[in-house]
Protein backbone atom coordinates (compact mmCIF):
# COMPACT_ATOMS: atom_id res chain seq x y z
CA UNK A 1 0.00 0.00 0.00
CA UNK A 2 2.79 2.40 0.93
CA UNK A 3 4.55 1.65 -2.35
CA UNK A 4 1.38 2.44 -4.29
CA UNK A 5 0.96 5.76 -2.48
CA UNK A 6 4.60 6.72 -3.05
CA UNK A 7 4.35 5.80 -6.72
CA UNK A 8 1.20 7.90 -7.07
CA UNK A 9 2.92 10.84 -5.41
CA UNK A 10 5.87 10.56 -7.80
CA UNK A 11 3.51 10.54 -10.79
CA UNK A 12 1.58 13.51 -9.40
CA UNK A 13 4.76 15.49 -8.81
CA UNK A 14 6.03 14.72 -12.31
CA UNK A 15 2.69 15.72 -13.83
CA UNK A 16 2.62 18.89 -11.73
CA UNK A 17 6.11 19.80 -12.92
CA UNK A 18 5.10 19.53 -16.59
CA UNK A 19 1.75 21.21 -15.94
CA UNK A 20 3.54 24.14 -14.31
CA UNK A 21 5.79 24.51 -17.37
CA UNK A 22 2.76 24.33 -19.62
CA UNK A 23 0.98 27.08 -17.69
CA UNK A 24 4.02 29.37 -17.82
CA UNK A 25 4.48 28.62 -21.54
CA UNK A 26 0.83 29.27 -22.32
CA UNK A 27 1.03 32.49 -20.33
CA UNK A 28 4.15 33.51 -22.22
CA UNK A 29 2.58 32.92 -25.59
CA UNK A 30 -0.57 34.67 -24.42
CA UNK A 31 1.43 37.86 -23.95
CA UNK A 32 1.56 38.65 -27.71
CA UNK A 33 -2.22 38.23 -27.83
CA UNK A 34 -2.60 40.62 -24.89
CA UNK A 35 -0.17 42.99 -26.59
CA UNK A 36 -2.25 42.79 -29.75
CA UNK A 37 -5.37 43.76 -27.83
CA UNK A 38 -3.50 46.68 -26.28
CA UNK A 39 -2.23 47.70 -29.72
CA UNK A 40 -5.80 47.82 -30.99
CA UNK A 41 -7.01 50.24 -28.34
CA UNK A 42 -3.83 52.25 -27.77
CA UNK A 43 -2.33 52.39 -31.27
CA UNK A 44 -4.62 51.29 -34.11
CA UNK A 45 -7.60 53.28 -32.87
CA UNK A 46 -5.52 56.42 -32.27
CA UNK A 47 -2.93 56.80 -35.01
CA UNK A 48 -3.96 58.32 -38.35
CA UNK A 49 -4.26 55.69 -41.08
CA UNK A 50 -1.04 56.60 -42.89
CA UNK A 51 0.92 56.78 -39.62
CA UNK A 52 -0.28 53.32 -38.64
CA UNK A 53 0.52 51.98 -42.11
CA UNK A 54 4.03 53.46 -41.86
CA UNK A 55 4.51 51.85 -38.45
CA UNK A 56 3.48 48.46 -39.86
CA UNK A 57 5.94 48.73 -42.73
CA UNK A 58 8.98 49.61 -40.59
CA UNK A 59 8.00 47.15 -37.86
CA UNK A 60 7.71 44.43 -40.51
CA UNK A 61 11.23 45.19 -41.76
CA UNK A 62 12.57 45.02 -38.21
CA UNK A 63 10.73 41.77 -37.52
CA UNK A 64 12.15 40.28 -40.71
CA UNK A 65 15.72 41.19 -39.66
CA UNK A 66 15.17 39.88 -36.14
CA UNK A 67 13.71 36.61 -37.45
CA UNK A 68 16.68 36.09 -39.76
CA UNK A 69 19.12 36.73 -36.92
CA UNK A 70 17.30 34.17 -34.80
CA UNK A 71 17.49 31.59 -37.59
CA UNK A 72 21.21 32.18 -38.17
CA UNK A 73 22.49 32.27 -34.59
CA UNK A 74 19.79 31.50 -32.04
CA UNK A 75 17.94 28.55 -33.55
CA UNK A 76 21.25 26.59 -33.71
CA UNK A 77 21.98 27.69 -30.13
CA UNK A 78 18.68 26.24 -28.93
CA UNK A 79 19.29 22.99 -30.78
CA UNK A 80 22.87 22.34 -29.65
CA UNK A 81 22.44 23.69 -26.13
CA UNK A 82 19.53 21.26 -25.68
CA UNK A 83 21.81 18.34 -26.57
CA UNK A 84 24.67 19.06 -24.15
CA UNK A 85 25.37 20.52 -20.72
CA UNK A 86 28.54 22.27 -21.95
CA UNK A 87 26.92 25.40 -23.36
CA UNK A 88 29.77 27.88 -22.94
CA UNK A 89 31.27 27.63 -26.44
CA UNK A 90 27.86 27.80 -28.09
CA UNK A 91 26.86 30.84 -26.02
CA UNK A 92 29.80 32.93 -27.14
CA UNK A 93 29.52 31.71 -30.71
CA UNK A 94 25.83 32.64 -30.86
CA UNK A 95 26.47 36.09 -29.37
CA UNK A 96 29.20 36.69 -31.95
CA UNK A 97 27.15 35.57 -34.96
CA UNK A 98 24.12 37.55 -33.85
CA UNK A 99 26.16 40.73 -33.28
CA UNK A 100 27.79 40.47 -36.71
CA UNK A 101 24.46 39.91 -38.43
CA UNK A 102 22.67 42.78 -36.68
CA UNK A 103 25.60 45.10 -37.47
CA UNK A 104 25.49 44.10 -41.15
CA UNK A 105 21.72 44.69 -41.33
CA UNK A 106 22.09 48.12 -39.70
CA UNK A 107 24.72 49.15 -42.24
CA UNK A 108 22.55 47.98 -45.15
CA UNK A 109 19.47 49.82 -43.85
CA UNK A 110 21.38 53.07 -43.43
CA UNK A 111 23.18 52.81 -46.77
CA UNK A 112 20.13 51.74 -48.82
CA UNK A 113 17.54 53.83 -47.04
CA UNK A 114 16.56 55.92 -50.07
CA UNK A 115 15.99 53.07 -52.57
CA UNK A 116 14.16 51.04 -49.92
CA UNK A 117 11.75 53.88 -49.29
CA UNK A 118 11.23 54.41 -53.02
CA UNK A 119 10.39 50.71 -53.40
CA UNK A 120 8.06 50.39 -50.39
CA UNK A 121 6.35 53.78 -50.54
CA UNK A 122 6.60 55.13 -54.10
CA UNK A 123 3.76 57.61 -53.43
CA UNK A 124 5.51 59.00 -50.32
CA UNK A 125 2.36 58.58 -48.23
CA UNK A 126 4.13 57.42 -45.09
CA UNK A 127 7.19 59.67 -44.72
CA UNK A 128 9.39 56.66 -43.93
CA UNK A 129 12.71 58.52 -43.96
CA UNK A 130 12.41 59.49 -40.30
CA UNK A 131 11.39 55.97 -39.27
CA UNK A 132 13.98 53.75 -40.98
CA UNK A 133 16.69 54.66 -38.45
CA UNK A 134 14.64 53.03 -35.72
CA UNK A 135 15.53 49.62 -37.20
CA UNK A 136 19.21 49.65 -36.01
CA UNK A 137 18.08 50.98 -32.63
CA UNK A 138 15.48 48.23 -32.23
CA UNK A 139 18.00 45.55 -33.23
CA UNK A 140 20.49 46.84 -30.67
CA UNK A 141 18.01 46.96 -27.79
CA UNK A 142 16.61 43.50 -28.63
CA UNK A 143 20.05 41.87 -29.02
CA UNK A 144 20.52 40.35 -25.57
CA UNK A 145 16.82 39.78 -25.02
CA UNK A 146 16.53 37.56 -28.08
CA UNK A 147 19.70 35.67 -27.15
CA UNK A 148 18.53 34.98 -23.60
CA UNK A 149 15.14 33.64 -24.72
CA UNK A 150 16.83 31.17 -27.11
CA UNK A 151 19.24 29.99 -24.41
CA UNK A 152 16.53 29.53 -21.79
CA UNK A 153 14.33 27.72 -24.30
CA UNK A 154 16.98 25.01 -24.68
CA UNK A 155 16.64 24.09 -21.00
CA UNK A 156 12.86 24.61 -20.73
CA UNK A 157 13.23 27.51 -18.31
CA UNK A 158 9.84 28.78 -19.32
CA UNK A 159 9.18 30.86 -16.22
CA UNK A 160 12.20 33.09 -16.90
CA UNK A 161 11.18 33.44 -20.54
CA UNK A 162 7.75 34.55 -19.37
CA UNK A 163 9.15 37.36 -17.25
CA UNK A 164 11.46 38.57 -20.01
CA UNK A 165 8.58 38.72 -22.47
CA UNK A 166 6.20 40.19 -19.88
CA UNK A 167 8.53 43.13 -19.28
CA UNK A 168 8.64 43.79 -23.02
CA UNK A 169 4.99 43.34 -23.96
CA UNK A 170 3.40 44.81 -20.85
CA UNK A 171 6.10 47.48 -20.61
CA UNK A 172 5.31 48.59 -24.15
CA UNK A 173 1.64 48.95 -23.29
CA UNK A 174 2.48 50.96 -20.17
CA UNK A 175 4.70 53.30 -22.19
CA UNK A 176 1.96 53.64 -24.85
CA UNK A 177 -0.59 54.61 -22.20
CA UNK A 178 1.80 57.02 -20.47
CA UNK A 179 2.71 58.76 -23.73
CA UNK A 180 -0.97 59.02 -24.67
CA UNK A 181 -1.77 60.55 -21.28
CA UNK A 182 0.96 63.16 -21.81
CA UNK A 183 -0.39 63.93 -25.32
CA UNK A 184 2.81 62.67 -26.99
CA UNK A 185 1.35 59.73 -28.88
CA UNK A 186 0.13 60.60 -32.35
CA UNK A 187 2.84 59.37 -34.74
CA UNK A 188 4.65 56.15 -35.63
CA UNK A 189 7.83 57.60 -34.08
CA UNK A 190 6.08 57.86 -30.71
CA UNK A 191 5.20 54.17 -30.90
CA UNK A 192 8.79 53.16 -31.70
CA UNK A 193 10.18 55.21 -28.82
CA UNK A 194 7.93 53.33 -26.39
CA UNK A 195 8.90 49.96 -27.86
CA UNK A 196 12.59 50.83 -27.63
CA UNK A 197 12.29 51.69 -23.92
CA UNK A 198 10.43 48.44 -23.25
CA UNK A 199 13.10 46.42 -25.07
CA UNK A 200 15.82 48.00 -22.93
CA UNK A 201 14.00 46.95 -19.74
CA UNK A 202 13.38 43.48 -21.17
CA UNK A 203 17.08 43.04 -22.02
CA UNK A 204 18.04 44.02 -18.47
CA UNK A 205 15.60 41.41 -17.18
CA UNK A 206 17.14 38.86 -19.55
CA UNK A 207 20.58 39.68 -18.19
CA UNK A 208 19.38 38.99 -14.64
CA UNK A 209 17.79 35.67 -15.70
CA UNK A 210 20.90 34.36 -17.49
CA UNK A 211 23.71 35.78 -15.37
CA UNK A 212 24.78 32.31 -14.18
CA UNK A 213 25.00 30.88 -17.68
CA UNK A 214 27.06 33.77 -19.05
CA UNK A 215 29.35 34.17 -16.05
CA UNK A 216 32.90 33.24 -16.96
CA UNK A 217 32.31 32.82 -20.70
CA UNK A 218 35.39 33.17 -22.86
CA UNK A 219 36.19 34.27 -26.36
CA UNK A 220 34.26 32.27 -28.97
CA UNK A 221 35.86 29.05 -30.17
CA UNK A 222 36.22 28.71 -33.92
CA UNK A 223 34.88 25.15 -33.78
CA UNK A 224 31.69 26.29 -32.00
CA UNK A 225 31.15 29.12 -34.48
CA UNK A 226 31.62 26.67 -37.34
CA UNK A 227 29.12 24.24 -35.77
CA UNK A 228 26.47 26.93 -35.41
CA UNK A 229 27.23 28.29 -38.87
CA UNK A 230 26.97 24.88 -40.55
CA UNK A 231 23.46 24.49 -39.14
CA UNK A 232 22.48 28.15 -39.11
CA UNK A 233 23.25 28.91 -42.74
CA UNK A 234 20.56 26.46 -43.83
CA UNK A 235 18.02 27.46 -41.17
CA UNK A 236 18.77 31.08 -42.15
CA UNK A 237 17.92 30.40 -45.78
CA UNK A 238 14.87 28.29 -44.96
CA UNK A 239 13.53 30.71 -42.35
CA UNK A 240 14.43 33.64 -44.56
CA UNK A 241 12.40 32.26 -47.42
CA UNK A 242 9.51 31.53 -45.08
CA UNK A 243 9.74 35.03 -43.56
CA UNK A 244 9.85 36.67 -46.98
CA UNK A 245 6.69 34.93 -48.14
CA UNK A 246 4.88 35.64 -44.84
CA UNK A 247 5.74 39.36 -45.07
CA UNK A 248 5.41 39.65 -48.83
CA UNK A 249 1.76 40.65 -48.50
CA UNK A 250 2.63 43.82 -46.55
CA UNK A 251 5.51 44.87 -48.81
CA UNK A 252 3.70 44.27 -52.11
CA UNK A 253 0.46 45.79 -50.87
CA UNK A 254 2.30 48.96 -49.89
CA UNK A 255 4.18 49.15 -53.16
CA UNK A 256 1.24 48.35 -55.46
CA UNK A 257 -1.70 49.92 -53.60
CA UNK A 258 -0.39 52.26 -50.89
CA UNK A 259 0.37 52.69 -47.20
CA UNK A 260 -3.31 53.25 -46.42
CA UNK A 261 -4.16 49.78 -47.73
CA UNK A 262 -1.48 48.34 -45.43
CA UNK A 263 -3.24 49.97 -42.46
CA UNK A 264 -6.60 48.38 -43.35
CA UNK A 265 -5.03 45.00 -44.09
CA UNK A 266 -3.01 44.88 -40.88
CA UNK A 267 -5.97 46.02 -38.80
CA UNK A 268 -7.70 42.85 -40.01
CA UNK A 269 -4.63 40.63 -39.88
CA UNK A 270 -3.91 41.52 -36.25
CA UNK A 271 -6.66 39.03 -35.38
CA UNK A 272 -4.40 36.20 -36.53
CA UNK A 273 -2.18 36.76 -33.47
CA UNK A 274 -4.06 33.84 -31.92
CA UNK A 275 -2.59 31.63 -34.66
CA UNK A 276 0.90 33.08 -34.12
CA UNK A 277 0.61 32.42 -30.39
CA UNK A 278 -0.18 28.74 -30.95
CA UNK A 279 2.62 28.38 -33.50
CA UNK A 280 5.21 29.84 -31.13
CA UNK A 281 3.94 27.78 -28.21
CA UNK A 282 4.25 24.57 -30.24
CA UNK A 283 7.72 25.41 -31.53
CA UNK A 284 8.95 26.35 -28.05
CA UNK A 285 8.44 22.77 -26.89
CA UNK A 286 8.72 20.67 -30.04
CA UNK A 287 12.04 22.00 -31.36
CA UNK A 288 14.19 20.79 -28.43
CA UNK A 289 11.82 17.83 -27.86
CA UNK A 290 12.15 16.55 -31.42
CA UNK A 291 15.90 17.13 -31.38
CA UNK A 292 16.40 14.92 -28.34
CA UNK A 293 14.00 12.14 -29.28
CA UNK A 294 15.13 11.93 -32.91
CA UNK A 295 18.73 11.65 -31.74
CA UNK A 296 17.63 8.83 -29.42
CA UNK A 297 15.71 7.08 -32.20
CA UNK A 298 12.29 7.46 -30.55
CA UNK A 299 10.36 7.78 -33.80
CA UNK A 300 7.11 6.35 -32.39
CA UNK A 301 7.15 8.94 -29.61
CA UNK A 302 7.60 11.71 -32.15
CA UNK A 303 4.73 10.42 -34.32
CA UNK A 304 2.38 10.14 -31.37
CA UNK A 305 3.32 13.59 -30.09
CA UNK A 306 2.86 15.16 -33.53
CA UNK A 307 -0.61 13.66 -34.00
CA UNK A 308 -1.79 14.69 -30.53
CA UNK A 309 -0.42 18.21 -30.91
CA UNK A 310 -2.02 18.75 -34.32
CA UNK A 311 -5.37 17.42 -33.13
CA UNK A 312 -5.44 19.45 -29.91
CA UNK A 313 -4.35 22.65 -31.67
CA UNK A 314 -7.05 22.22 -34.32
CA UNK A 315 -9.72 21.82 -31.65
CA UNK A 316 -8.50 24.95 -29.85
CA UNK A 317 -8.42 27.08 -33.01
CA UNK A 318 -11.77 25.99 -34.46
CA UNK A 319 -13.86 28.50 -32.42
CA UNK A 320 -11.51 31.32 -33.46
CA UNK A 321 -11.84 30.34 -37.11
CA UNK A 322 -15.64 30.12 -36.85
CA UNK A 323 -15.94 33.61 -35.37
CA UNK A 324 -13.62 35.15 -37.96
CA UNK A 325 -15.43 33.49 -40.87
CA UNK A 326 -19.00 34.01 -39.64
CA UNK A 327 -18.84 37.44 -37.99
CA UNK A 328 -15.99 39.50 -39.51
CA UNK A 329 -17.89 42.79 -39.68
CA UNK A 330 -19.08 42.54 -36.09
CA UNK A 331 -15.54 41.86 -34.87
CA UNK A 332 -14.13 44.92 -36.64
CA UNK A 333 -16.94 47.14 -35.36
CA UNK A 334 -16.34 45.91 -31.82
CA UNK A 335 -12.61 46.60 -32.05
CA UNK A 336 -12.38 49.75 -34.15
CA UNK A 337 -15.83 51.32 -34.15
CA UNK A 338 -16.42 52.92 -37.56
CA UNK A 339 -12.77 52.60 -38.67
CA UNK A 340 -11.47 49.85 -40.99
CA UNK A 341 -14.98 48.49 -41.72
CA UNK A 342 -13.87 47.59 -45.25
CA UNK A 343 -11.52 44.98 -43.75
CA UNK A 344 -14.37 42.49 -43.13
CA UNK A 345 -13.66 40.35 -46.25
CA UNK A 346 -9.99 40.18 -45.21
CA UNK A 347 -10.91 38.85 -41.75
CA UNK A 348 -13.18 36.19 -43.26
CA UNK A 349 -10.49 34.99 -45.67
CA UNK A 350 -7.75 34.90 -43.03
CA UNK A 351 -9.94 32.76 -40.77
CA UNK A 352 -9.25 29.75 -42.99
CA UNK A 353 -5.55 29.81 -42.02
CA UNK A 354 -6.58 28.17 -38.73
CA UNK A 355 -6.90 24.81 -40.51
CA UNK A 356 -3.30 24.98 -41.74
CA UNK A 357 -1.51 26.34 -38.67
CA UNK A 358 -1.38 23.09 -36.61
CA UNK A 359 0.23 21.08 -39.41
CA UNK A 360 2.68 23.81 -40.36
CA UNK A 361 3.78 24.51 -36.77
CA UNK A 362 4.43 20.86 -35.90
CA UNK A 363 6.15 19.98 -39.16
CA UNK A 364 8.34 23.10 -39.12
CA UNK A 365 9.41 22.31 -35.56
CA UNK A 366 10.37 18.77 -36.58
CA UNK A 367 12.36 19.99 -39.57
CA UNK A 368 14.58 22.06 -37.29
CA UNK A 369 14.69 19.46 -34.53
CA UNK A 370 15.81 16.55 -36.71
CA UNK A 371 18.41 18.74 -38.46
CA UNK A 372 16.99 18.47 -41.99
CA UNK A 373 16.84 22.17 -42.79
CA UNK A 374 19.27 21.79 -45.70
CA UNK A 375 16.85 19.62 -47.65
CA UNK A 376 13.85 21.75 -46.68
CA UNK A 377 15.55 24.73 -48.28
CA UNK A 378 14.41 23.54 -51.70
CA UNK A 379 10.78 23.70 -50.60
CA UNK A 380 11.34 27.26 -49.42
CA UNK A 381 12.78 28.31 -52.77
CA UNK A 382 9.77 26.92 -54.59
CA UNK A 383 7.47 28.61 -52.11
CA UNK A 384 8.97 32.05 -52.66
CA UNK A 385 8.83 31.59 -56.43
CA UNK A 386 5.12 30.70 -56.23
CA UNK A 387 4.51 33.62 -53.84
CA UNK A 388 6.21 35.98 -56.25
CA UNK A 389 3.60 35.02 -58.84
CA UNK A 390 0.48 34.64 -56.69
CA UNK A 391 0.81 37.77 -54.53
CA UNK A 392 1.18 40.39 -57.30
CA UNK A 393 -1.59 38.74 -59.32
CA UNK A 394 -4.07 38.61 -56.43
CA UNK A 395 -3.21 42.09 -55.12
CA UNK A 396 -3.52 43.63 -58.58
CA UNK A 397 -6.98 42.12 -59.06
CA UNK A 398 -8.44 42.22 -55.52
CA UNK A 399 -6.12 44.70 -53.73
CA UNK A 400 -6.10 44.14 -49.92
CA UNK A 401 -8.48 41.16 -50.08
CA UNK A 402 -6.19 39.69 -52.72
CA UNK A 403 -3.27 39.85 -50.30
CA UNK A 404 -5.33 37.79 -47.83
CA UNK A 405 -6.27 35.26 -50.53
CA UNK A 406 -2.65 34.87 -51.55
CA UNK A 407 -1.56 34.52 -47.93
CA UNK A 408 -4.00 31.67 -47.30
CA UNK A 409 -3.09 29.91 -50.56
CA UNK A 410 0.66 30.14 -50.01
CA UNK A 411 0.37 29.19 -46.32
CA UNK A 412 -1.56 26.07 -47.32
CA UNK A 413 1.04 25.14 -49.92
CA UNK A 414 3.83 25.63 -47.39
CA UNK A 415 2.06 23.52 -44.75
CA UNK A 416 1.40 20.67 -47.15
CA UNK A 417 4.97 20.75 -48.51
CA UNK A 418 6.68 20.70 -45.12
CA UNK A 419 4.36 18.00 -43.76
CA UNK A 420 4.92 15.75 -46.76
CA UNK A 421 8.68 16.20 -46.36
CA UNK A 422 8.64 15.39 -42.62
CA UNK A 423 6.77 12.15 -43.39
CA UNK A 424 10.04 10.74 -44.72
CA UNK A 425 11.48 10.78 -41.19
CA UNK A 426 8.52 10.89 -38.78
CA UNK A 427 5.28 9.25 -39.99
CA UNK A 428 2.22 11.41 -39.26
CA UNK A 429 -1.12 9.85 -40.18
CA UNK A 430 -3.95 12.20 -41.15
CA UNK A 431 -6.52 9.64 -40.03
CA UNK A 432 -4.60 8.91 -36.84
CA UNK A 433 -4.32 12.62 -36.10
CA UNK A 434 -8.04 13.26 -36.11
CA UNK A 435 -8.77 10.02 -34.28
CA UNK A 436 -6.84 11.60 -31.41
CA UNK A 437 -10.07 13.44 -30.67
CA UNK A 438 -10.92 10.36 -28.64
CA UNK A 439 -7.90 11.00 -26.43
CA UNK A 440 -9.08 14.56 -25.83
CA UNK A 441 -12.61 13.37 -25.09
CA UNK A 442 -11.35 10.66 -22.71
CA UNK A 443 -9.16 13.16 -20.88
CA UNK A 444 -11.97 15.73 -20.64
CA UNK A 445 -14.48 13.16 -19.38
CA UNK A 446 -11.98 11.90 -16.83
CA UNK A 447 -11.43 15.41 -15.53
CA UNK A 448 -15.17 16.01 -15.41
CA UNK A 449 -15.82 12.81 -13.43
CA UNK A 450 -13.01 13.66 -11.04
CA UNK A 451 -14.57 17.08 -10.50
CA UNK A 452 -18.01 15.54 -9.86
CA UNK A 453 -16.54 13.03 -7.40
CA UNK A 454 -14.93 15.81 -5.38
CA UNK A 455 -18.28 17.49 -4.86
Q: What does the secondary structure layout of this molecule look like, with pairings?
A:
Layout lengths: L1 H43 L4 H34 L5 H24 L1 H8 L13 H21 L3 H24 L6 H22 L1 H4 L7 H35 L2 H11 L3 H23 L3 H28 L1 H9 L7 H7 L6 H13 L3 H26 L1 H23 L7 H6 L1 H18 L1
Helix pairs in contact: 1-6, 1-11, 2-3, 2-5, 2-7, 2-9, 2-10, 3-5, 3-9, 5-6, 5-7, 6-7, 9-10, 9-16, 9-17, 10-17, 11-12, 11-15, 12-15, 13-14, 14-17, 15-17, 16-17
Radius of gyration, in angstroms, nearest whole number? 22 Å
Low-confidence stretches: 1-19
Class by helix and strand content? mainly alpha
> Could you tell me the strand content as a percent range?
under 5%
Q: How many beta strands in the DSSP annotation? A: 0
Q: If you average the pLDDT, what whole number results?
A: 84
Number of helical runs?
19
Oligomer: single chain
How would you characterize this protein structure?
Helices cover 83% and strands 0% of the residues. It has 455 residues and is mainly α. It has one domain (22-444). The radius of gyration is 22 Å and the shape is globular. Mean pLDDT is 84; it is low at 1-19.
Give a nutshell description of this structure:
The chain is mainly α and 455 residues long. The protein is 83% helix and 0% strand. Helix 6 packs antiparallel against helix 7 (188-209).
Amino acid sequence: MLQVILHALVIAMEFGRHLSKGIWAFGDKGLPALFGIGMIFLVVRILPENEYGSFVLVQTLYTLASTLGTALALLPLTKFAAETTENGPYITAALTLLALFFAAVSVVVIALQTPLIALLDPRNEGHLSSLMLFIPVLLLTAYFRNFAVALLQATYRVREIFWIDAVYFLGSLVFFAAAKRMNHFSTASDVFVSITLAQILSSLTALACTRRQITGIRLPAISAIRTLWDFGKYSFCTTGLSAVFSQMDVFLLSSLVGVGAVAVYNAARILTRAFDMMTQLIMMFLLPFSSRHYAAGNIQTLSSTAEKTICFTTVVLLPVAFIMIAFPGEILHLLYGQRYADGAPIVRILGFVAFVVPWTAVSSSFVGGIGRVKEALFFGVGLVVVSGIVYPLCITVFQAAGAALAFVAVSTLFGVSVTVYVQRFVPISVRGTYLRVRDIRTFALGQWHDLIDRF
